[in-house]
Amino acid sequence: MSGSRGHELAHLYDHPGPAARRRVLVASVLSVLVLVAVLALALRELGQAGQLDADRWTPLLSADIASYLLVGLRGTLQAAAVVAVLSLPLGVLLAVARTSPHRLVRVPAVVFVELFRTVPVLLLIYVMLFALPSYGINPDVLWKLAIPLVLANSAAIAEIVRAGILSLPRGQTEAGLSLGMRRAQVVRAVVLPQSLRHVTPSLVSQLVSLLKDTSLGYVVAFTELLYRAQVLTSFNRLLIQTYVVVTLMYLVVNGSLSFLAARLRARSDTPVPPPALATTPGAAVVTAPAHEEVRHG
Amino acid sequence: MDALTQHGDLIAEALGTTLLIAVLSTVGALVIGVLVTVARISPVPVLRGAAFCYVQYFLNVPLLALLLLAVFALPDAGLVMPLTTTVVVVLGLYEGAYVAEAVRSGVNTVAPGEVEAARALGMGFSQVMRKIVVPQALRAVVQPLGNVLIALLMNTALAATVGVVELTSAANRINNVLAQPIAVYASVGVVYMAMALGLGLMASRVEKRVAILR
Question: Scanning every residue of chain B, which has its alpha carbon at the shortest distance from the alpha carbon of A237?
């Protein structure tokens, strides 16, 4: 994002001449002034409330508190790993089922995906917390968080993978079938490898939103980063400082994942070189446009 | 079910709160999203950098953490707002980043030739944005924007965790009285599904109406 001409949408304006350079300079100075003013106002507000005093920030650097929060971060990563490992296969399965020609397979998948895509995760968590225990189902606190997240995220992943499957040219499936492969074979050997590679960046982005979702551990009292932060604030009363530090921790972890997703996306946008010995030109090259989608948590 | 109708007032009020939060933060998110997108593709490097940081921050930090920060922590710095207002502001800022991502992928669909043609006609950056890029970018991303708005609706439920009595928290309260968890949560779930379905249908209809045939 740096450099005045190097970025991807540079065609939106002319190569700046002297007058345009002057205008950009003026706009830069003005926006710096505005940003600095906003920042200064916020800092002044914080300073007047005594929130910037060094003794309100240094406790967070102490080894005890850092390790206390890091244990929370470990819980976050652990929950995210459990949810990711379970919801990825489930999501792929649902996507395949939803694109199946058999109605008996397709309809349950449609119902599952649409149901868990349009019900808030928090509501599912409340069901785990307050509804199921009265029917004798009372799983461990990790599962009270993980099961709702798996349901919601597998539905989201199913939609991502389905988009990948649909963006594949139909000829791929038809060619597989005409070679005498069974439909299951076509899905396994032709459709999924290509479409999964295609949607990998979106799947990594979904991982970000999944990791953010684990902050709902705050509601079920599962030991993850946000829950630990909340417990910590009830002892040290350093609310602003603790929560700012925690959002920055999330930013670092998720920012790296987002960066990875952007790298993968940039790589998949560069055209695939044709294979050296392609007998039918173009057939082996995935021609469908990169499916860019906004995913969410 | 008839037990639920006794609490009709609470449900109606809570549904109203959910809708109020959803509508106000939708408006905020759309405005913020478009402005941030314009800043992100502007010729001014400082604005591009600021918009990039904004989007990355809100894309990568959990909404719940932001809500706790705004509701419980910021009053320590003397920033006190009514609870629902705080939720609307946080949700609008948060979803604004997602709107910006969606609109930016729409900007990519605007053909460079159109922008060049506009510039050849002598339009400046703001004119190119207002008349050529933003209208077409928005039309291209109606469906993704619909998905963002559905996610926004789902995220209004998080207001329950900071004490706003909206639909999810009302479900909890009613269940505390009735102790019929399955019936209560299922019917509230159906209400959310109906609203999301409505949004989805609306997005499809709007898309049909404004889509650019190429």
Answer: B73
The whole-number pLDDT of residue B11 equals: 87
Q: Which two tokens stand for residue B133?
A: 């890029």
Please give the share of chain B, as a percent, with pLDDT higher than 90.
65
Question: Is a pLDDT exceeding 70 seen at residue A3?
Answer: no
A79 assigned to some structural domain? yes
Helices and strands of chain A, counted as H and E runs:
12, 0
Structure-token pair, residue B171: 């479900």
Position A6 confidence tier, pLDDT thresholds 50, 70, 90: very low
Of A92-106, A173-187, A260-274, B64-78, minimum mean pLDDT range = A260-274
Q: Is residue A112 part of a domain?
A: yes
Tell me if A45 is assigned to some domain: no
- Neighboring chain A residues of B172 at a CB cutoff of 8 Å: 126, 130
Q: Are B98 and A296 in contact (CB under 8 A)?
A: yes
A268: confidence class by pLDDT, cuts 50, 70, 90: confident
Host domain of residue A61: 57-269
Of B57, B59, B192, the CB nearest to A120: B192
Chain A contacts of B68, Cβ < 8 Å? Answer: 218, 226, 229-230, 243
* Ordered domains of chain B (ranges, CATH): 2-210 (1.10.3720.10)
Residue A158 sits in a domain of what CATH number? 1.10.3720.10
Q: What is the mean pLDDT of chain A?
A: 86
Phi-psi region of A136 (alpha: psi -120 to 50; beta: other; left: phi over 0): left
Q: Min CA distance, A227 vs chain B (Å)?
A: 10
Best of A7, A8, A12 to disrupt the B interface by mutation (most B CBs within 10 Å)?
A: A12
pTM: 0.87
Chain B residues in contact with A213 (beta carbon < 8 A): 62
Place of tokens 């509508």: B23
The total domain count for chain A is 1
Q: What is the ipTM of this complex?
A: 0.88
The Cα B4–Cα B6 span in angstroms is 5
Q: Which of B48, B64, B99, B119 to mutate to test the interface with A (most CBs of A within 10 A)?
A: B64
A 222-261 near B (Cβ less than 8 A): 226, 229-230, 233, 239-240, 242-244, 246-247, 250-251, 254-255, 258
Residue A13 lies in a domain: no
Could A12 and B133 be called an inter-chain contact, meaning their C-beta atoms sit closer than 8 Å?
Answer: yes
Residue with tokens 């968080």: A145
- Burial-class residue A249 by CB neighbours within 10 Å (0-12, 13-18, 19+): buried
Q: Of chain A residues 96-115, which have a CB less than 8 A from chain B?
A: 114-115
Could you tell me the pLDDT band of residue B7, with boundaries at 50, 70 and 90? confident
